[in-house]
Amino acid sequence: MDELLENISEQKFLENYDINSYKRPSVAADIAAFTIRYEEEENYRRCEKNKLSLLLIKRGEFPFKDCWALPGGFVRENETIEECAFRETTEETGIEPSAVMPVGVFSEIDRDPRGRVISNAFVSVITNGVEHTKGGYDASQASWFDIEFDKNYDGLFELKLNNGEIHLSALLKEKSESFGFTKYEIIDSGTLAFDHAAIISSSLKALRRCIGDFDIIFDFLPEKFTLTQLQLVQETVLNVSMLPANFRRKAADYVEVTDDYITGAGHRPAQLYRKKLNCKN
Amino acid sequence: MDELLENISEQKFLENYDINSYKRPSVAADIAAFTIRYEEEENYRRCEKNKLSLLLIKRGEFPFKDCWALPGGFVRENETIEECAFRETTEETGIEPSAVMPVGVFSEIDRDPRGRVISNAFVSVITNGVEHTKGGYDASQASWFDIEFDKNYDGLFELKLNNGEIHLSALLKEKSESFGFTKYEIIDSGTLAFDHAAIISSSLKALRRCIGDFDIIFDFLPEKFTLTQLQLVQETVLNVSMLPANFRRKAADYVEVTDDYITGAGHRPAQLYRKKLNCKN
DNA sequence: CAAATAGTGTCTCTAAGACAATATCAC
DNA sequence: GTGATATTGTCTTAGAGACACTATTTG
């Protein structure tokens, strides 16, 4: 009886509850989509060089019209933020991510001149070879930019983006780190829109942190790959180099061989591997 | 001249831009505040046992009136989500967190019966001994609950909360893991409010993941502590046990000795240590 | 003295890094 | 054959786990 009364009054409460009586921020998702692009070598025998690249759009609207920005947009009533991240990436760039991974929330009050906009940042990894970028309805152009992000002599971080024609660069300072998520303060945004220089930096840091886990690393490659390709992904993202023998030992637990080999490389053919499932050892 | 025109039209655009023309979700912060509580031992010589505890409030309002929930609330116009997390924790429980760390965003469409509410989850770690919980203006009661979270025979996760009087329990399934952030699907929420069983599970998982890094671990302890206390924190959070000799070796790089000792323990007095600053080796 | 924790030393095992050596292909 | 990568094996070193041993206090 008491419970019945309680249910009725809860129902009444909810009917009279006006969620619109509070002022609410807008909520957006911004997506840092990474891929690895190959650079031709003059020597036919040599391995191709790899470059880590980030997908940006040239904004077609104010604010930051004609500036480069991460793909992203406002969350809709009937979708989760993850769904919004998928949708916006596809709409604005023509690329369908296979997965998006949350990396943090950016809620500084004045980060968007249009008003209060809270942005949830996502990292997405695109299998190499997807060069079918396009400009969507609200992005006039999409392009892959090679990305570099390193600490300079001051202890500040330099973010450099380069698509062959356009060079963007920004300067940032590490602000805080917790739970493996790092926030950066923008010293100089260059011509990147909003606080996207900081979002990009945090996203790349998060990507680097987890690329050694043999988890998302496979998202950079087709189903079958050589161990050298796998190693190059890790080396490219982390900007380090490793000895093949040692890398193979580490990777062994996470891959399984196939019967296929690559061919025509001008040297001993490499065996193709695939990701091993159900390996949590 | 062109640039001037551009600036004028951008200004005009922003003046005419009505951010309220889109339907927007409400945005909230929910905080999982952890501490370690001691359990008395009958034997005066014995070490106290430790329990990992979580701060919950009993809801004074609909929806989920009288259910237990994480402290939290809606973000205001003039604060970041991090600031909101601080404010709500203090308002609702009387406890001032020294830091809050983001762990993820929960945006399922129907997670709140009042309407569309997107929740940003935070973990906070409270130095042991803060027992001054209170009920704030919109929380009728606040209390620390011992927390257990383990995989059972089915592969499902059981979340158990216990404050001496009240036992709460929930059943969850691991849904996805990326970037070290794990999402859970609620099978049975028990009497926990909203999707807080899932938020609590993700938060504890995140805490466990980083407690071995000798970073936030110190937030559980006063400024000076013994190595045994430090070890007990790690053991309690991870629910494991380690040999003191090995733990000391690992911890050595992150602490520095003081001249003080504990006394009156019925055994050899332990030297007190403090967190070493600037150690990134 | 007994019981308990504090703290040290050392053996073993594993994983990572360095490096040498062999295999295989395309030109 | 030459020049490149593919692949395997092994030596060394660093760190974690196991465990034995000593030190110190209070009832």
CATH class call of the largest domain in chain A: Alpha Beta
Spell out the CATH superfamily of the largest domain in chain A.
Nucleoside Triphosphate Pyrophosphohydrolase
Mean pLDDT of chain A: 89
* Model regions low in confidence, pLDDT < 50 over at least 5 residues of chain A: none
Structural class of chain A: alpha+beta
Query: What oligomeric arrangement do these chains adopt?
Result: homodimer
Quick overview of this protein structure:
Chain A has 281 residues and is an alpha+beta fold. Chain A has helices spanning 2-16, 81-93, 196-211, 227-238, 244-251, and strands at 26-39, 49-59, 68-69, 72-74, 100-106, 117-125, 139-151, 157-162, 167-178, 181-188, 255-261, 271-275.
Question: What would you say this structure looks like, in words?
Answer:
The structure is a homodimer of 281-residue chains. By secondary structure, the first copy, chain A, is of the alpha+beta class. Chain A has two domains: 26-212, Nucleoside Triphosphate Pyrophosphohydrolase; 223-275, Winged helix-like DNA-binding domain superfamily/Winged helix DNA-binding domain (Arc Repressor Mutant, subunit A). Helices cover 23% and strands 35% of the residues of chain A. Chain A has helices spanning 2-16, 81-93, 196-211, 227-238, 244-251; strands at residues 26-39, 49-59, 68-69, 72-74, 100-106, 117-125, 139-151, 157-162, 167-178, 181-188, 255-261, 271-275. In chain A, the strands form two sheets. In chain A, strands 1, 2, 3, 4, 5, 6, 7, 8, 9 and 10 form a ten-stranded mixed beta sheet that branches. In chain A, strands 11-12 form a two-stranded antiparallel ribbon. In chain A, a hairpin with a 5-residue loop joins β7 and β8 (157-162). The longest helix of chain A is centred in the last third of the chain and has 16 residues, at 196-211. The radius of gyration of chain A is 22 Å and the shape is globular. The mean pLDDT of chain A is 89. At the A-B interface, α1, β5, β6 and α3 of A face α1, β5, β6 and α3 of B. The structure holds a DNA duplex (27 and 27 nucleotides).
